[in-house]
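Posting for a labmate who doesn't have an account.
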Amino acid sequence: MDPAKYRDVKVQRGLIYHYYYSPPAAGKPTLLFIHGFPSTSFDWHRQVAYFEPKGYGLIVPDTIGYGGTSKPQEYEAFRFKLQAQDLIDVLDAENPATVIGIGHDWGSAVLSNIAHWHQDRFAGFVWTALSYLPPRTEEFVLEIAWQTMRKLVGSDIYGYWELFNQPDGHVICEKNIDSFLQLAYPINPEVWRDDFTDVGKAKAWIESNRQPGHGPWLTEEEYKTMREALLKGGLQSPMNFYKAAIANVNVQDHRGAHHLPAENWQVKKPALFVAATRDYVCRAVLGRANMQKYAPHAEIFELDTGHWVQLEATEEYNAALEQWIEKTPTARL
């Protein structure tokens, strides 16, 4: 991704957002790509390489906590409603006519909140690995979530959140950065099933500095770029995504005096969910259920990959996105 095509904008709450921008050709929509953890806008570099030559507009931000974007240390700054408004401010800086939002991992959670509060600004939505998430109106309790997931899928799923919520969680991961990254971008998807999702497993892996290698779908150059970006920016701020969720900072925006209207829970615009059948955190079966309840018209496309769909099955993913966009009239100019 050409560094010269990055821009900076100060959003309404004073944070600086750093984002890649390429204007659309006539008749093409602009694609807003929102990455997750532990990533930067670079996670979408293969999509940029595919869609930019075809004339699609591109806005690809480093989300809060990453890359060239501001890195608040307080978890309250990571409220999803605030992040959603930040990205609307980024869009306002470029004022594209037609926008399709595309999210992955925590980026999918942010995209869900964009759909809650700003759905009219978008022509369509694409959720990747993690599906649309409805508003949370009840307190999230990590221990109860573990119990619930064990009953549903036989795994804690959120087990690694325990480490990321610790005050020194970022220190442990930065000290053993290659072990951390080779767990985050594993050599095969089943590493997450065996050594990531259950309580205590991620911490044991990283503290023992296990390094079996990264996913074969990453080149050494890509891995080095990701590694350098995370070490430069640090993991303390990005881990606030987890701290904010555990602290229930988002509940205030979905109930009581600030409640979200019931009609805003439904996705009315065209939607696509790209599910990863070997993702042991963002389980495809749970994602399908959410889409069927809140976006029953959505198309669901499954890929036999782990969590990093856009990197593990780049050609298939890009083709699915393009085909969906081109056959969805309201997602085109």
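Reply:
Got it, the structure tokens are right above this. The first strand starts at residue 6 and ends at 10.
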